[in-house]
Amino acid sequence: TSNEADVKAKSGYEFAWFDAIRMPSKEFISRFFALEGYKDGLHGLVLSLLMAFYHLVVFAKLWEKKNFVQTENPDFLSEVRREAGQVDKEISHWFLHEKLKESKGIGKYSLKVKNKLTKFL
Questions:
Q1: Residue 44, CA distances (Å) to 1, 21, 31, 39, 101 in order
Q2: How far, in Å, CA of 110 to CA of 88, rounded?
Q3: Is pLDDT above 80 for 23?
Q4: N or C: which end of the chain has fewer CB within 10 A?
Q5: Alpha carbon distance 11, 4 (integer Å)
Q6: Would you place residue 96 in the very low, low, confident or very high pLDDT band (cuts 50, 70, 90)?
């Protein structure tokens, strides 16, 4: 994690508080859904969660390099809620995507419509 934080810092990473949510969730979603870690059952889930935690630690080390800069924002909780909502939308999309792959017949088409609609909500 220290090496990855150093590489990111040297490559011009711009620190943003919301990356504390985005970095781990992106890693989890990528490993568990896009790379089909769910097919490995509990092993896939645990590995996906561990890699998400790894990315949280990388973020924390980047934050440390910025001397633990504080976010002074009166709407902080609302912004955290918005970020969490985006993660929820992404995970919901992937659950629908996987369900769609398993569906047959008319149910498949209704899921496709639902999947398209969730992108706009």
A1: 21, 21, 8, 7, 19
A2: 21
A3: yes
A4: C
A5: 11
A6: confident
- Cβ contacts of residue 111 below 8 Å, gap of 6+? 96, 99, 100, 103
Alpha carbons 83 and 77: distance in angstroms, whole number: 10
Q: Which two tokens stand for residue 15?
A: 């620190």
Mean pLDDT rounded to a whole number for the chain = 89
39-84 confidence digits (pLDDT tens): 999 999 999 999 999 999 999 999 999 999 998 889 999 999 999 9
Rounded to two decimals, what is the model's pTM?
Answer: 0.80
Compute the distance between CA of residue 68 and CA of residue 63 in angstroms, rounded to an integer.
Answer: 5
Distance in angstroms (rounded) separating the CA atoms of residues 53 and 64? 16
Q: How many residues does the chain have?
A: 121
The C-alpha atoms of residue 37 and residue 97 are separated, in whole angstroms, by 14
What is the mean predicted confidence (pLDDT) over 103-121? 64
Sign of the torsion angle spanned by Cα atoms 97, 102, 104, 106: negative
